[in-house]
Amino acid sequence: xxxxxxxxxxxxxxxxxxxxxxxxxxxxxxxxxxxxxxxxxxxxxxxxxxxxxxxxxxxxxxxxxxxxxxxxxxxxxxxxxxxxxxxxxxxxxxxxxxxxxxxxxxxxxxxxxxxxxxxxxxxxxxxxxxxxxxxxxxxxxxxxxxxxxxxxxxxxxxxxxxxxxxxxxxxxxxxxxxxxxxxxxxxxxxxxxxxxxxxxxxxxxxxxxxxxxxxxxxxxxxxxxxxxxxxxxxxxxxxxxxxxxxxxx
Length: 249
Fold this sequence. Notes:
microtubule binding, about 0% strand, TPR repeat, cytoplasm, Regulator of microtubule dynamics protein 1, 10 helices, RMD1-3_a_helical_rpt, mainly alpha
């Protein structure tokens, strides 16, 4: 019974859309009507299912698309809230809480999370009561987070800045040769950070300090560096002053 009703509904729908009136079919039109009924019946057995499925499929596709969009919006809001909370904890010097918050995102591919986690790991390592083994672990963790942040987005000035800072810290555990070798890398990334954000005071200060440190390097240390490297890093007090003042104008 339900099949017959469905046949009539589909047939009437198709007839009405084609502009044909069933009541006026007479004589020779009867064959057309019979053929049409047969075609309608075949549609109910298979084709009509497809016709009836279009609205359902459209609804499902719309629902799926809507859910994806909603999920993206929720994720964006969640990210902004977490970053806002992280920056607040950093301003309050809540180092341990900040580290625990960001540690949840250590496997993230988002540079904004990663460079902040590198900073938090380094700050935690600098706490006065930090055990030596744990401090070393945090230093290397910070470097890995900064490295990953830079790999994910090399247009982030913060990623370049914290990569330079963290690789400098690693040099303290790797010996003089590695530390001097890393000096070239440190300067390169600091200059890139400044190029991306000329108003970042931290990058300007650190690069100025880098220049000052190599300008102040004693002659005997220069001799040692010259033995290890053909052309060791050099700088001057003038360059240090220029880096810290002229670039901030």
